Amino acid sequence: KEEDRLRRQYELEGRDLLPVEESEVSDLNVITPDSLFMAKLSKQLQTYIHLWISNNPLWKWIKVMLSNSNAHAEREHKIMSFIRIQRTCPGYNPNTSHVL
């Protein structure tokens, strides 16, 4: 691992090193639906999307749909279900592009 290699090198050079911090995602059990990690991630994504839409004129006309882990289904099934529902709505433009 590159970080370990650099730490060894810096120790040999006598440099001061910050302590190693354990990442919350080093335990893969936290990256599961309904976990605190996923709730935090969802909130951060909502904030990020809101900021971009509010502050970036290029995003003004983009419609962003966030489907987090609270909506139970595999991601590709949720996406296709959403697109199918949209296609049945009045006024749906058949030339609409979907970006995943």
Automatic annotation (TrEMBL):
Q: Name one Pfam family in it.
A: XRN_N
Its domain of life?
Answer: Eukaryota
Please report the stretch or stretches of sequence annotated as the Xrn1 N-terminal domain.
17-100
Which GO MF term does the entry hold, naming one? RNA binding
Q: Would you tell me the Gene Ontology cellular component terms? A: nucleus
Q: Name one GO biological process term.
A: nuclear-transcribed mRNA catabolic process
List the InterPro entries hit by this protein, alphabetically: 5_3_exoribonuclease, Xrn1_N
PANTHER family in alphabetical order? 5'-3' EXORIBONUCLEASE 3-LIKE (PTHR12341:SF62), 5'->3' EXORIBONUCLEASE (PTHR12341)
Q: Which protein are we looking at?
A: 5'-3' exoribonuclease
This chain's source organism reads: Cynara cardunculus var. scolymus
